[in-house]
Design a protein that fits this description.
The complex is a heterodimer of chains A (270) and B (204). By secondary structure, chain A is mainly alpha-helical. Helices cover 49% and strands 9% of the residues of chain A. By secondary structure, chain B is mainly α. Classes of the chains: A mainly alpha (270), B mainly alpha (204).
């Protein structure tokens, strides 16, 4: 616990430094990020989330007063090492392709008796979603340095990949945007924010492989579901339901494109 | 001969794949329908596509010979939606135009219907060289009028481009600002001045 406190103190001072430099050098986001990376070379503020997540994973909770230690993320009950690297994938028990967050929801429901709807309805960063953030941070840290390795050999996985591709190019709404409007070619920026080309292997590794991430600008840990949610907001689309198939299909599309790339989660972002 | 051959090939291709395609489309449509909910001003009607959007969602077809022909049709359709300014004035006030170009707000579920929309032009374009935080999805508009001149032809082309970019390029990445009422006439006049008033900083 005192270790946790010491870490907390360290991050508070790093964050204060960041805020100062954000104002001083706000001319170039890229420069800023490079500076932050330097300052916190031995880690990133996600460590706090990760530690909280490990506690939540092991602590009995919910109406059934059970922990998540028997949760099967695809490599067997309780296996966390490398689990995030092979998601999304098809699960026989739910007969669905699931990403990390929808799979964790299944575990929370079946093992702990927590209602799915309460998780879906919570605001990002609050209540059950705040706990989800921490658990996600814990799980993805155990795939850091591993290779993205998703399969599309099951017919449902293949179908999800194809639908994800279709969703990526699906243009609609008052701004005529699709994901491809912003992430469909190399070297593009919105203002000063670099946009990876998610249709290429290199771009998909940069994008898929570095999320979930700690966002310096908002001081929050964001999961991939939240990243996609905010992109859909900028796309002027209606609200994607948490854990819905379109979010999983898009994740499958990006993950498959990133296959073989080294995972660098939790990332550190603007 | 080449023409007939390509029609024949297209027919053959479509008859074998049409069933698989329909099956996939219905699964896809169900997924889209089940995956979203409305929030604030962003209703579910936003994922109902018009003909141009549907066409551009299939980039493989769009870049095929048949697609190129179809894109000309769609461009004509989009051109027909453009109205010239009702008061005959193309140029407004470039200072307001700069503010509209800077603001990227509007039309998301976190915006309210009553706050004025921006054009978000700097998200995609360099405009005034002084603003270094510009995106590059679109071309640089620095010295727009100075480079092109201020003829009526340039003026109406620019009016049309901002109003409905898909009149020139069916799958343009630029939003159709007048067509979807993102901006009103006065705002477009002000943006026009930013690009085409000889006194605008853009043309120095």
């Amino acid at each position: 616990m005192s270790n946790l406190l010491a870490k907390k103190m360290k991050w508070i001072s790093v964050l204060a430094l960041m805020c100062w430099s954000l104002q001083a050098f706000s001319q170039s986001t890229a420069d800023d990020i490079a500076k932050y990376r330097e300052m916190i070379a031995d880690g990133n503020p996600s460590e706090l989330y990760e530690m909280a997540g490990e506690e939540l994973w092991k602590k009995p909770a919910g109406p059934k007063n059970a922990s998540l230690e028997k949760c099967n993320l695809g490599l067997g009950p309780g296996v966390v090492d490398g689990a995030a690297a092979q998601l999304p994938r098809y699960f026989k028990d739910t007969n669905r392709v699931q990403d990390l967050e929808s799979r964790l929801m299944t575990c929370m429901e079946t093992l702990q008796g927590i209602s799915l709807q309460s998780i879906i309805d919570a605001k990002f960063g609050e209540g059950p979603k705040k706990e989800m953030d921490a658990i996600v941070a814990y799980v993805v840290t155990h795939s850091k340095g591993k290779k993205v390795q998703v399969s599309i050999s099951h017919p449902q996985e293949k179908a999800m990949y194809e639908m994800g591709k279709q969703a990526f190019y699906f243009e609609a709404g008052p701004f005529d945007f699709s994901c491809a409007s912003c992430h469909g070619s190399d070297g593009k920026r919105i203002r000063l924010q670099d946009l990876p080309n998610l249709t290429t292997r290199e771009g998909a590794i940069a994008g898929w492989g570095s999320w979930p991430a700690y966002r310096v600008s908002s001081g929050q840990f964001w999961t991939m579901q939240q990243r996609l949610n905010d992109c859909f907001r900028q796309q002027r689309f209606p609200f994607p339901i948490y854990g819905s198939d379109v979010t999983i299909a898009l994740s499958m599309y990006m993950a498959k494109n990133a296959n073989g790339g080294i995972i660098q989660t939790p990332g550190l972002k603007r | 001969m080449k023409f007939f051959l390509s029609i024949l090939l297209a027919l053959l291709w479509s008859s074998t794949t049409v069933y698989a395609q329909q099956k996939q489309d219905s699964q896809f449509n169900r997924m889209m329908k089940d995956s979203f909910r409305s929030q604030g001003i962003a209703g579910l009607d936003r994922i109902v596509q018009d003909a141009t959007q549907r066409f551009c969602s299939d980039p493989k077809f769009a870049s095929s010979p048949a697609g190129l022909k179809k894109s000309e049709e769609l461009q004509k359709l989009n051109m027909a939606t453009i109205a010239p300014p009702s008061d005959g004035q193309y140029l407004g006030d470039w200072k307001n135009g700069e503010a509209i170009a800077q603001s990227g707000r509007g039309d998301t579920w976190s915006d309210s219907a009553s706050t004025p929309n921006g054009g978000g032009c700097y998200n995609c374009h360099q405009i005034n060289q002084k603003e270094i935080a510009y995106g590059n999805i679109g071309p640089s508009l620095w010295n727009y009028g100075k480079n092109r001149g201020y003829s009526q032809e340039v003026v109406s082309y620019t009016w049309n481009r901002i109003s409905n970019s898909k009149a020139y390029n069916a799958c343009s990445n630029m939003p159709r600002f007048a067509h979807f009422k993102i901006l009103d006439q006065k705002q477009i006049q002000d943006l026009m001045a930013l690009l085409l008033d000889p006194a605008s900083p853009v043309n120095q």
